[in-house]
Amino acid sequence: MALPGIAGFIYIESKGIPKYDVAAPDIEIEVTPEKLQRGEKLASMLCASCHMNRETRSLSGRWMTDAPKEFGKIYVPNITQDETYGIGNWTDGEILYLLRTGIKKDGSYAPPYMAKLPHMADEDIESIIAFLRSDHPMVTPAAVEDYPTEPSFLTKFLCNVEFKPFDMPKGKISMPDTTDQVELGRYLVYNLECYTCHSADFTKLDMMTPENSKGFMGGGNKPLDNDGNPMVTSNITPDKETGIGNWSKEQFVKAVRFGLMENEPALRVPMIPYTQLTDYEAEAIFAYIQTIDPIKNDLKRSMIEE
Ligand code: HEC
Ligand code: HEC
């Protein structure tokens, strides 16, 4: 990525975050008890880490103190069903369109730090939307006002130049074959966005073909903990010396589901234990990891004193 000269700088500063046409599909998602359950599980793993407000215990938003400083001062908005402050007046189609493409209801592009789900199966993404509209306490209306975000120049630059909205998928995206552990594991690594943190650099991700992200799963990226301290992400490629090539399946499942490490302190924020995953799903991630290219990248954990 080359930063622009002064003319480009002025152009991007004045243009800000780009806007696009909104072509939200006119749909109404069918709600079933299975979808609500699946949606709760996915939203808890995938949306709550950013949108959860600890005081209201709902997805009513918060300052994203764990966003790398170079992105600016970021506020994560209220996505409860409140009609004034939340997304109570968004249609199913508008939510789907944002999650697939990155384009919000008002046409503006949601910067790279907001999750995008171009690979998620239709059934799973519909489950998330059904859950967002349910009577679960995480999403029932909470009248909490958003603060304005102050995106940095880098964020505006990335939104104008590096990251473009994705197209809506051309056809149906089916659920992974859960009997094929590698396929299921790949699906989870893509959609739970393990690779966004565990690759080399947030600004060098390839979300359409995650394997092409710089240093795919080789760690070294530095998301922040809740106090703003950089936390080096681990190399989780199958490299035997510097990655997890010598780990057992059991050791991996314990680390991913519960943050538990052998002879080392437990994993810390922003690595949030994926307790909602089943052992089988965590094992599938492990099976998929065995198939990716090992990367030599010797990293030390960031051990921050309490
Ligand atoms: C890494 C943090 C992060 C994750 C994970 C995340 N979001 Fe967001 N989300 C944001 C931020 C920050 C914004 C505001 C973007 C902006 O400024 O345009 C946002 C915006 C939104 C909006 C637009 C709200 C509005 O009022 O404009 C919706 C809807 C949304 N997110 C839903 C979700 C859902 C559903 C998930 C889980 C599938 C999710 N988000 C996961 C950070 C996150
Ligand atoms: C928000 C960023 C983030 C996401 C998303 C994330 N991780 Fe992590 N992960 C980290 C950080 C940071 C550490 C190191 C924490 C520490 O040192 O205490 C870590 C540590 C680990 C470790 C320990 C490895 C070692 O050698 O120490 C494993 C295994 C792991 N993550 C797997 C995963 C998997 C699988 C996913 C997706 C399901 C995932 N992570 C998603 C940030 C993340």
Summarize the structure in words.
It is a single chain. The protein has 306 residues and is mainly α. The chain folds into 2 domains: 20-162, Cytochrome Bc1 Complex, Chain D, domain 2; 181-289, Cytochrome Bc1 Complex, Chain D, domain 2 (Orthogonal Bundle), CATH 1.10.760. It is 31% helix and 3% strand. It has 10 helices and 4 strands, in the order αααβββααβααααα. The chain has a two-stranded antiparallel ribbon. A two-stranded antiparallel sheet has the order 2-4. α2 crosses α5 (122-132). The longest helix is centred in the first third of the chain and has 14 residues, at 33-46. The chain is globular. It starts with 5 loop residues before the first helix and ends in a 17-residue tail after the last helix. One heme C is lined by residues 43, 46-47, 49-51, 64, 74, 76-77, 79, 87, 95, 98, 104, 110-111, 113-115, 128, 149.
Ligand inventory reads: heme C
Q: Could you estimate the helical fraction of the residues in percent? A: 25-40%
Q: In total, how many domains does the architecture comprise?
A: 2
The major sheet is characterized as: 2 strands, antiparallel
Our Rg estimate from Cα atoms comes to 19 Å
Q: What is the topology, as strand order, of the major beta sheet?
A: 1-3
The total strand number stands at 4
Annotation field: number of helices: 10
- Look at the structure and give the CATH class of the largest domain: Mainly Alpha
